[in-house]
Amino acid sequence: MTATVSRTRQPEVLTPAERSALGKAARKRVPLERHAEYTPPPDRLDPVALLEGQAMSRVPDLVPLRYGRMLVSPFTFYRGAALVMASDLAGTPVSGFRAQLCGDAHLSNFGLFATPERRMAFDVNDFDETLPGPWEWDVKRLVASLAVAGRDNGYSRKERRRICMAGAATYRQAMRGFAESNNLDVFYASIDIGTWMQDFGETLTTKQRRKTEASVEKARTRDSMQALGKLTELVDGERRIISDPPVLVPIEALFREQSALDLYASLREVLASYRRSLQPDRRVLLDQFRMVQVARKVVGVGSVGTRAWIILLLGRDDGDPLFLQAKEAQPSVLEAYAGGSVYGNQGRRVVAGQQIMQAASDIFLGATQAAVDQGAPPRDFYLRQLRDGKGSAEIETMVPTGMEAYAGICAWTLARAHACSGDRIAIAGYLGRSDRFEQALAEFAETYADQNESDFHELETAERTGRIKTVRGL
User: Among 24, 62, 269, 433, which residue carries the largest CB count within 10 Å?
Assistant: First the structure.
């Protein structure tokens, strides 16, 4: 009797030439020039109403602070208005190719951090909105942020256009390079900031190079030890988090004594659940720390109002700290337009997206679910180290040539992230070799910067008429 061997049929794998041909065919359907298009439809959603809808799921007393931070400038408004732009991008032309998206790829959401090997790397560093979707959406949000920030910095239209074109051109050229690379080479590609300075430092002025080197050195010092000195003090011989309301408030100052004790009990369960999402070696390391105190922390601009906690843990003694940040993960702003997540836990969505897009991720990156509000259903969270060599550029002080250089490094990073999950060969075939893509995106960026300013003024009007309440200066 002859045994029958069942073979699972392998999915069809297209050749590089066939994948490139798909991209070129898409270019005929959706010409590159069409990416310049943005015209708000007559039934465009009210931007303030969209923000008010987001506020419904956030901590009520922090929502005015979010509005206040958004109203500092059109650029800070842009940072907080990812949902508004997602609804606008949904009506723009796309080639049909998808990748794992950051979902909020403006130039302030890139930066430095220390890899597990203790190198200083540059990468995308915010994934609250990550979700698979059209790769164009990330690129347009990045390039438009250059125009918005350039206006805030007082750059001329000519300077802004040069910066926007440089960013889009670097994305196109980088994607072509990744299309010609082996799969593993793309996966291992990264920007080590030390190597980058050696290779490209001569393109910076002496002042720019010194400023970059100073930023790198400052980032190296931003770790749990630095956070211990800045965020805590000794009280009766015990290490305690310093209260700085409303930005940083220990649990004991937020709740009655019994409620605080109940929340601490819940948080210990949260840590146990989160622990199971880590790799075994990370679990062993985490087990060597004990939880000491937890505080609510206000972070960023767009994230203000979502529940975020910092957790102080100590190891062998008071000089062996670990600060974790537990941040609430709500559904991505892209979900209504790009489709829902395959993950039931939004924290897991964030973790997966980060691991797919980043060249290296925090060793303590993990997800869990927690009941942190009495009588409310559990909420999804992701956790990571609060500080581990993290640093970001000072956008407001950049000169035009500095922003042009920064646009290039951000665009290369985004192209690498998309190349890891999207069809890089098809996308490169679509983008081609001409400058039509960057010409179109430079036009789009200026048009959308106009829209962003109009939306910013709408929020100002909402404040002035009492439609919204704001807290400024925090």
Answer: 62
